[in-house]
Amino acid sequence: MKPTGLLFFPAFDWAISPTHPEREERLLYTRDQLFEEGIMDLPEIREYHPRLATAKEISRVHFCVPDVESRVTQAHLVSAGSALVMADAFMQKEVKNAFAIIRPPGHHAMTVSHGNRGFCDINNEAVMVEHLRQKYGVKRLAIVDTDVHHGDGTQEIFWDDPDVLFISFHQDGRTLYPGSGFTEELGGPLAYGATINLPMAPGTTDTGIHYIVDNLVLPVLEEFKPELVINSAGQDNHYSDPLANMSFTAQGYAVLNRKLKPDIAVLEGGYSVETALPYINMGIIMAMAGIDFSNLREPDYDPARFTESPANMNDIKALVKKQLASFRGREEVVEMRRSGGRTFETATRGVFYDTDGLREQQRVTLRICPDCCGFRTIASSAVQRSGRRYAVFCISLPRACCKVCTDEARGAYKEVQAQTGYDYVYLQDRIKDEFRTFDGKTGQETAI
Questions:
Q1: Are 145 and 168 within 8 A, CB to CB?
Q2: Which site in 96, 134, 332, 335 is 20 to 30 Å from 284, CA atoms measured?
Q3: Using CA of residue 287, residue 290, residue 294, residue 296, what is the dihedral sign?
């Protein structure tokens, strides 16, 4: 039997502030407990070491403004690179599954990155997905986000990608940051139904979450048939987490993982540093490695505290029924939108970077192609923490695009260069696996 791969990266040199909930102790208590319990000495576990992600690997997903080197710290590169190490270990069949226990987290980071939002600059899972596609030819994947906060960054990155199923269950956005992740958020015009949001009422317990897993997540995964399942493993649904209001337990997380059977898990949030994270991580690791976790309990665990209310269970059952129907009706909706006669769909939106206190304005356009998923452009502007305002134009060309979309996207990159007002024009060409930057002030172009 192959082992479970583990990788720790506590990022000692990165913190938002010395007392911020997102700090190195999130991982250190877990590491100490695992070594004390002897888990790391078991034949079921193999430990791996991190590496730096490259600017090219980051740029397969992100438009870092003005560039990766200016926008991303070394800690972020190591965190993203650690996810890639785990992906390689799994794809090269060295391990049966893998868990990257890393920080900084990433699931609030969107396609364009002007700063830090929700403690995230770079989306580790998204960078890993494009690495898997480019290096191994993986096409169809599923990401199940178990963080208490809606994974709005991951959702935005794959919003128009019909080959990535994104499922997020989280505390209702009306009660918690980032205020999104509602049932009607179901994906872009040509990827409708590939996004599934499951907002839950505060106080939901193991019983409610496991009902969602059994009656929606697992059936949808069976129907979607992804080549890999990735767990965006946030742990702040725990009853002791200081930033949220849910009632999940360490035992509940372990059972969830046993049911979900992710190929790769990547740590996201979770801020109950001493009383939850060591136990949750222990449970996830034991479940992935096939080690008995029936005696795993938090010191203050009392089963009488965790009874799901009949009213909330009724709401959860209705939620599952609604979202399952949306998923199963997705092809009809996509075909209707594809044949609607529009060539492009454009939307404007504002993005708030809560950690850095800045606001970005975007105009997003998708080509509605009759033959493929289309390509996307993003006109973005923001005043960064330095006080400098950047206006950029971003073109993202997916690997699955047809020749018509490919030619049009590359042509748009040349055409926009002649327009005034943009500091940079970017082309993210996943077909050629290159990232081009045109500097609007100097007229110089670079490529990686």
A1: yes
A2: 134
A3: negative
Specify the residue for token string 């785990």.
86
pLDDT of 105 above 90: no
What does the pLDDT look like over 258-298, one tens digit per residue?
999 999 999 998 888 778 888 999 999 999 999 999 999 99
* Torsion 205-262-164-269 (CA) sign: positive
Residues 6+ apart with CB under 8 A from 32: 278
Give the chain's largest Cα–Cα span.
Answer: 67
Residue for token pair 């979900």: 260
What pLDDT is attached to residue 16? 66
Distance CA 41, CA 145 (A): 29
Cα four-point dihedral sign 59, 101, 250, 252: positive
What residue type is assigned to position 447 of the chain?
Answer: A
Q: CA-CA distance, 137 to 434, in Å (whole number)?
A: 16
Structure tokens belonging to residue 245:
């209001």
Residue 344 and residue 374 in contact, taking contact as beta carbons nearer than 8 Å: no
Query: Which range is least confidently modeled, 139-148, 266-275, 386-395?
Result: 266-275
Listed in order, the ranges of the chain carrying CATH 3.40.800.20 are: 4-332
| Length of the chain as a residue count | 448
Residue 124 identity (one-letter amino acid): N
**Architecture (CATH level 2) of domain 4-332:** 3-Layer(aba) Sandwich (3.40)
Angle at 124 between CA 444 and CA 285, to 5 degrees: 160
Percent of the chain whose predicted confidence (pLDDT) is above 70: 97
User: Could you list the active site residues?
Assistant: 108
* Identity of the amino acid at 157: I
Q: What is the pLDDT of residue 237?
A: 94
122 DSSP assignment = S
pLDDT in tens, 37-50: 888 899 999 999 99
In terms of Cα–Cα distance, which of 210, 150, 142 is closest to 183?
150
Q: Nearest Cα to 146, choosing from 262, 56, 47?
A: 262
Question: Across residues 22-28, what is the average pLDDT?
Answer: 72
- Please, what is the average pLDDT of the chain? 94
Distance (Å, whole) CA 233 – CA 21 = 17
- Whether 210 has a pLDDT exceeding 80, the answer reads yes
Q: Which helix (H) or strand (E) holds 446?
A: strand 445-447
Q: What single DSSP character describes residue 232?
A: E
Coil/strand/helix, residue 432: coil
